[in-house]
Amino acid sequence: MTIEAVIWDFGGVFTTSPFEAFAAYEEQHGLPKDLIRRVNSANPDDNAWAKFERSEVGIAEFDRLFAEESRALGHEVPGHDVIALLQGDLRPEMVRALEICNAQFKTGCITNNVKPHDGKTMWEEGSRAAQMHGVMQMFDHVIESALVGVRKPDPRIYEMMCEALSVAPGACAYLDDLGINCKPARAMGMATVKVVTADQAISELEQITGHSLR
Questions:
Q1: 136, 188, 195: which is closest to 162 by C-alpha?
Q2: How many domains in the chain?
């Protein structure tokens, strides 16, 4: 396979996983382990989280819906609390890998994100906004679910990226921290990397691309 483009997820790839923050919140509040992830995985195409990432509901409605869905599993969690857990810390080694990729390949980012308020996405607000925005500016093309109304793992969002970069799926590598999001990319012919750690992901991407990325 000749790679022409490297396509990346953002949260959990360039930043530490929000799952770590979910786990800490659950422990702090005496909630069952992985409760938040179970809420998010129940009815995944039409739950509060899916609607929020497609901008079909605002923050107040998401807060209410997520509380209802978590209450149905036995423990009410305000959606507003979950939003606050999403931003992780940047992984500098992943940013460096992106910099090197930019010199060799087309690059894109497909991210499921939300609009907390004022029409801004999560990358445009907060104390680390400039830092996050700087990384987002490095890609040749970015697709944000909150802006296009389509979210992973809908195959359409991967097709949109291939069209934007003018590449065939079989000439792409795709990185994501969720296996469910890697699955449609792989079915389209992309080489996929499920990101667990930065070192592991970079090693696998080096094997796929044939380039040193450190």
A1: 188
A2: 2
pTM above 0.90, yes or no: no
| Residue 37 amino acid letter | R
Output the CA torsion 92→102→211→188 (10° steps).
Answer: 100
In this structure, the answer to whether residues 65 and 121 fall within a common structural domain is no
CATH number of the domain within which 56 lies: 1.10.150
Q: Which residues, including other chains, have CB under 8 Å from residue 18's CB and lie 6 or more apart?
A: 11, 12, 85, 86, 87, 88
> Residues 32, 12: one domain?
no
What number is the average pLDDT over the span 109-118?
79
Structure tokens at 15: 């930043």
> For residue 119, is pLDDT > 60?
no
What H or E segment, with its residue span, contains residue 173? strand 172-176
SS3 call for 207: helix
Neighbour-count burial of 203, counting CB atoms closer than 10 A to its CB (0-12 exposed, 13-18 middle, 19+ buried): middle
Q: Average pLDDT in the 177-202 region?
A: 97
List alpha helices for 29-122, DSSP H: 35-41, 48-53, 59-72, 79-83, 92-104
Query: Do residues 86 and 117 touch, judged by C-beta distance below 8 A?
Result: no
